[in-house]
Amino acid sequence: MSEVITADNTDLLAHILGDIQNKAYIDVVRNVQQQITDNAELIDVPVEHHFAPGVYMRQMNAAAGTLVVSKMHRTEHMNILLTGSLTVATENGIELLKAPVVLKSMPGTKRIGYFHEDSSWITVHPTESTDLEIIEQQVIVPDNEIDQFLASLPNKCKGIE
Description:
Blueprint: E1 3-6, H1 10-19, H2 25-39, E2 47-52, E3 55-62, E4 66-69, E5 72-73, E6 77-83, E7 85-90, E8 93-98, E9 101-105, E10 112-115, E11 119-126, H3 132-139, E12 140-141, H4 146-152
Antiparallel strand pairs: 1-4, 2-3, 3-11, 4-10, 5-12, 6-9, 6-11, 7-8, 7-10
């Protein structure tokens, strides 16, 4: 997850979470991401990197009251909400998640999450690399390639049956 605002802007938060619809969520997420970039003070969220043979884990520690827009992922991978809770908007709608939770993300997943309490979120990616730039190229879809990437996915990967 990459772009964050605090919960001080309650009108924006209500607008964001109220406008998410199942199949239009990517356009809404893009709009939200642009609003955050244009109108909010961005803050750094602490990230820790963990490596084991064939595995990279990225741990993000978000403070209560932050809103995060994730990057889009190319690959199917696992996520772990280790501690805390958040309301997250996904292709399946809006869900309240309370730790501990393990969930799978399909290729093309991009999320918006509002953290209700201090939380720790881990993404788990298969890779042999320990170079963060190479790993990002392997697993992240650049914003300017999202439409092309989504068009290349089978419907079941996009949450469309």
